[in-house]
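Lecture 7 notes: from sequence to structure.

We start with a single chain of 665 residues. Read the sequence below before looking at the structure.
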Amino acid sequence: MIRGSIVALLAATLFPGAAAAAPPPPDNNVETVEGEFLVPSDEADDAAAATGGSIETLGLGWSLLRVAPGTETDRAASAGITLYPNPVLLPQEEPLQDQQWGLARVRAPAAWEVTRGRPGIVVAILDTGTDLEHPELAPRLWDNPGEVAGNGADDDRNGFTDDIHGWDFRDGDKRPDDLGYHGTMVSGVVAAAIDGQGVAGVAPGVRLMSIRVCDDSCPDGDVIAALAYAVNNGADVVNISLGRAPLGDDIDAPLRQAVQAAGDAGLLVVAAAGNQATDADENPLVPAAFPGNAIVSVAATDPDDGLASYSNWGSDSVDLGAPGTNIVSTTPLDYDASPGHGSLSGTSTATPHVAAAAALIRSANPCAPPSVVRKTMLATVDSAPDLEGRTVSGGRLDAAAAVAGALDRYQGEMEVEAAASPGHGGAPLAVELVGDADCDPTGKLAGYRWTFGDGGAADGRRLVHVYDEPGVYTARVTVRSPVGTEGRATVSVIVGLPFGDLGTTIFAKEIAWLSATGVTLGCDEAGTRFCPQAGVRRGQMASFLTRAFDLPAGPDAFGDDEGSTHEDAINALAATGITQGCTTTSFCPEGEVTRAQMASFLTRALDLPAGPDVFGDDEGSTHEDAINALAATGITQGCTTTSFCPAEKVTRGQMAAFLYRALAD
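Now the structure, written as tokens:
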């Protein structure tokens, strides 16, 4: 359902006094979304705390608060937080929508109450091209964000010049125009705009990536290149209303492997089962018959939910049915037979119903991988007797049930990474912060909320923040998807370099962090140098670890550290069992620390569990178990990929890196 954020934004702009008042009750004649409120983003966290709800960042300074229906919201008003009702912008009926029986049969309008499709979701149409000028398709075309139109340059360096809306692999140019009609009809079924003219697509809010692979025929090589283009340029779903008979494992291998690779890369492939009125288990068409959890094979149904007379079927190889008979859709404006709009029957028009439903699922839940999208659509079909025993699912697509099912089926945590560039430097320091959610690399579908560690906060996947004062700051990003899936990540920012000799070391960030947290004071009395290339002595190691882990004092343990500045730290280390000395009575505070000894010190200090054998050069070493434990945590990767170099001396810079990896957030 379209959110009323623009309405609320205009209300707040035109009536600024309303911001201080409690939310007005909605007019009984105004449709709103139950349990949803619009709230200024700077009040969103407080609103969630007051009501027990969840927050989705919408952008432009607004967030969406979801609460359980019936939840008392007066506590938000009492706290001075304004909750605005979430009114609904109602769609116009398309003039030809009453002729789109398939749209109603798959319950697309009910699915639209959750989502009509998000612009960040892209469906690639591998076909005869698309009429790029059609008024119902032009607003829905994918715009390549990395390309500048018409400048004759490959701005995004993807190998294609001026590929604004896709690519023509038959003619090798930037204009994938439809020279027939087939691709334009498929495109309209997927995403024709709801604009008061003509027809509506099943997913009218998504974007169409037009990729022309056909003229009189559609060569495998062009289809493979098109699949690679779709993957490399961020498509989520690909519609292939094309097919041919298998030609043998060797001949089919390139296309089969390309389809599998596209699925492995996160692309859901939706393909037509074919129009030969035959059992596809015995007489398959490819690519629909290729195996895999990232490909969906589609049969065609008629208005009575029967298997269309021309459609292939297959209890093992055809997944589900979708409307395919007399489907009204867009045609090229210069198509003589029926300019602008027409009807077509076939699995070619059934397939885009399913591709569009997959796009709606990805819009509602961008973290759902292709296998989950496929599984959800098959598990939520509307049972059809004529499809039982003739398709894998035994039913016809139900887009509304599929979208609802997606909200329940995949609510796992997102993997999120955070990066800061530069991560350290003098004050003031302007830092670019970037968040990356694994299921939403473009940042278009999820809300990114940064807290900077200095009291500031802002929304956005990529932003710049200026730290004015020296210190160590932990910047945190929280990422929420539209369905509440959440992930978090942190990154450290060090402002102000404490020592003058860090310019040539790769460990400047780690050393600065240790200094700011009080773990190191430098190598000279003035505290102006760190000496990152100097070796670490056992007494120095004791002080590093005692400060890092805030160890309590201990009794005098050794006889050879009297008068050492590190004596108290050595005793604290001994009291905790982190060291037993170099002998039972001596600590050898001036002895240099080897990498193997460092592993044992840190493993005992961190109480690390055992890990698998990683390196080949520590066999027989008394420190081997500690080395493996350290490697298992990621604190070390060795001196090479296969060696740890246990006898090498540890430098002060290396020790700073080890402690930073062990202790930093």
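The mean pLDDT is 85. Keep this in mind for problem set 3.
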